[in-house]
Amino acid sequence: MVSNLCHSCPPLTRIINTSRPFHRTTINSKQLSSAINHPHPISFFLKRSHSTSGTNLFSVIISRYPCNRAFPLLAFQRSEKPLPTRKLHEEEEEQERDMTIKPAVRVSDGKLIVKNRTVLTGLPDNVVATSGPVEGVFLGAAFEEGNSRHVTSLGTLQSGVRFMACFRFKLWWMAQKMGDSGSEIPLETQFLLVESKEGSHLASDGGDEEDQIVYTVFLPLIEGPFRACLQGNTRDELELCLESGDVDTKASSFTHSLFVHAGTDPFATITEAIRSVKVHLKTFRQRHEKKLPGIVDYFGWCTWDAFYQEVTQEGVEAGLESLTSGGAPPKFVIIDDGWQSVGGDQEKDGEKEPALQRLTGIKENSKFQSKEDPTVGIKNIVNIAKEKHGLKYVYVWHAITGYWGGVRPGVKELEEYGSLLKYPNLSNGVLQNEPAWKTDILQLQGLGLVNPKSVYKFYNELHSYLASAGVDGVKVDVQCVLETLGAGLGGRVELTRQYHQALDASVSRNFQDNGIIACMSHNTDALYCSKQTAVVRASDDFYPRDPMSHTIHIAAVAYNSVFLGEFMQPDWDMFHSLHTAAEYHASARAISGGPVYVSDAPGKHNFELLKKMVLPDGSVLRARLPGRPTRDCLFSDPARDGVSLLKIWNMNKYTGVVGVYNCQGAAWSTLERKNAFHQTKSDAITGYIRGRDVHLIQEAATNPDWNGDCAMYCNRTGELVALPYNAAMPISLKVLEHEIFTVSPIRVLAPGVSFAPLGLVDMYNAGGAIEDLRYEENLGNGSVGVERLIGAVTMEVKGCGKFGVYSSEKPRRCCVGTNEVDFDYDSASGLVTLSLDRMPEDGQRVQLVEVEL
Q1: CA-to-CA distance for 653 and 651, rounded, in angstroms?
Q2: Residue 206: what pLDDT?
Q3: What single-letter DSSP state applies at residue 534?
Q4: Strand partners, 677
Q5: Across 183-329, where does the E strand assignment appear?
Q6: Phi and psi of 68, rounded to 5°?
Q7: Nearest Cα residue to 5 out of 72, 62, 69, 71
Q8: Which of 130, 132, 448, 522 has most Cβ atoms within 10 angstroms of its Cβ?
Q9: Considering only 192-201, 222-231, 359-368, 568-577, which range has the smallest mean pLDDT?
Q10: In 3D, which of 564, 425, 554 has the Cα closest to residue 488?
């Protein structure tokens, strides 16, 4: 809409006084039609009345101020009974207030108001609001002079709200922090979700919006060469921090540095917010728009925790042989750090620190060269992996700068890349959160940075060499280091953009399956320019020798996936199958929706555990979405509060899955600036699980009239419960304990007869095995003396093993393919189980299972 009157519409022109910001008048139906169809619509709010002649008249308040979207027209019938003049005026004023359609998110009188609820108060005058989509607003700020770093208050966070923040506790990685005051919001917060506490998360989705919880998403953005983040201060204010990473890259005015969006469904609100930012920035794509590489549907092995940098060609082959012989054949391998040609700088007199290793050549080192023919290079182990051990994909590791210390300057064969030694300059927030950086070897010895103008040539020559050897993809590590190296190069955002555009182009050209995993990459500089990469490591590493790390890891991957999962499929990292916390990690990977792979040393495996995730052909039952905390866990703190369990939900095609974890006892400490143990209040914590914990469980129901009842199958105990809609089932877990529930919508086939598919019940993600589901109902009454056939259920099932369904009545018979098979029925729970003895026949992806009732 426009603020200036358009003189192409005389009937409307004559009745509007454009000298006043708001103007009340009366128009007839013809004039109203003209206003509605006006080429430059005007903001207006109306009330219908009648003239003495019976003609419809409309009392109108017309605004000369612009509005960026069309308002619906609301008409009200006047009371037939005359009202006193004063009461009539009061009624009109009240109706005018009601009919003023306000943006869902707006700044008014120094307040940030979200769906008529105040979230921030005391916004300073230098904060600039720019209207965005219907449910959002952009915020920026004006400063008196240009600088490379600015911090401004955004006002005080109101009491009565809770937040969940994803912040960088290290340069490379994010973690979660919960709280209810501005002072608790950490430095380097890149994603902030705020909950207005009115209402309950159990309220009906169709209830009055005023009684529902409102979720507000704060997304600090990239604006020009500046990157924004959020932080709190001791006055409970939310602050916006803007940095270019280059003292010569300055600005003083910002308009689109923070996007604020709101809604009543937290997950949909986040997705819509990211979509709005995508439309605004035009620099990245969302997860669902990207091609997922084939590795996500298969079991894999990574060499890192098995060998670290001592990996050899012989070690790789030993690991593949060991896993395959035990019945858990990997179909992809990641040859991690240790295969490249690297070396340190020449030592200087008096130096005590070991030299930082830098890349000295594009090709592999001698460990990966065949003794018989060194020219074959890394292709030798690639051929062994694929031809001898049946692997589909081979990935290798490299840093985004080539190696940890970059590309060594002065090496003759690498001179064309123009590498120069640069020293990291970390942001204030990262240094405060990770003070150990002050003595990091990279900080002390610098990094050999390839000239941004030559970085595509560097990537393309590296990747084309690997592709020619049969390598299918790369794990690209150390990505956040780029933000520290932007001085003299236009700043952190510009350097990151140049490197990622070159990386995307090279991957697209050389790895047709979009073979790339992003690692150590949790800064928004990279996320908001990611167009190609579809898989991202979700948290800090799995540390097999650090007992503190395991609960921290599960909590971090789940909460980080709330944000990261909008851009890419989160990868919850490798783990050891033979470990005290192996089941804890394995079950989480199985429901994560991302790749499943281990880093076992050869001969050190738990095959019983692996077979809960891996089918005999090396494929996995992958859930369809990123695993995320359930709605009622978003603002609890399952790592610190001593009373909460973490519940993680995901979806299959016809079922859902919920994992429950006790993650208490350790977390990143705000005071110590590192991970630390803390006391827990009890040995076991009791929580509750319900069918609707699977946020999108309605999508798995085949009946549009589904009543919300679910069958809940417990993987550990084998117990099955038919749970009515919104009913809760208690569960108690000690630290490092977990449980997985398959959640399946119950379909009523006839009065007293109901059914729900479960899947391969010995697998963690049992329901992932069901790829198609068809119901046939009301099949007839049968002949005399023959029990009536109520219906039949046909399922297409991937894999083999123990298959289960819920049925309130004992089935008449069960068939696999055309063969009738034996089955067991537990009348107390309704659990039906049968055996699928073998994988589908050659050339067949699934096998048919039919249950007659």
Answers
A1: 7
A2: 47
A3: -
A4: 666
A5: 189-196, 214-220, 222-223, 226-232, 237-243, 251-263, 299-302
A6: -95, 15
A7: 62
A8: 522
A9: 192-201
A10: 425
Which band of pLDDT confidence, cut at 50, 70 and 90, is reported for residue 58?
very low
Token digits for 510? 């050389």
Backbone angles phi, psi at 383, to 5 degrees: -65, -40
SS (H, E, C) 394-439: EEEEEECCECCCEECCCCHHHHHHCCEEECCCCCHHHHHHCHHHHH
Can you give the pLDDT at residue 525?
98
Block residue for tokens 């593949």? 320
- Asked if the model's pLDDT at residue 7 lies above 90, the reply is no
Q: How far is residue 684's CA from residue 778's CA, in Å, rounded to a whole number?
A: 48
What digits encode the pLDDT tens for the residues 128-164? 999 887 789 999 999 999 999 999 999 999 999 999 9
Three-state DSSP at 816 gives strand
Q: Are strands 56-63 and 22-28 parallel, antiparallel or unpaired?
A: antiparallel
**Which residues are registered as beta bridge partners of 166?**
176, 191
Give this prediction's pTM: 0.87
**Rounded CA separation 701/707 (Å):** 10
Angle ∠(3,8,12) on CA atoms, nearest 5: 70
Count the alpha carbons within 13 Å of 417 in the hemisphere toward its beta carbon.
Answer: 29
Predicted local confidence at residue 72, as pLDDT: 32
Residue 843 has a CB neighbour count (10 Å cut-off) of 5
Q: Would strands 729-734 and 847-852 be described as parallel, antiparallel, or unpaired? A: unpaired
- Which helix (H) or strand (E) is 315 found in, with range? helix 313-325
Cα gap 396→298, rounded to integer Å: 17
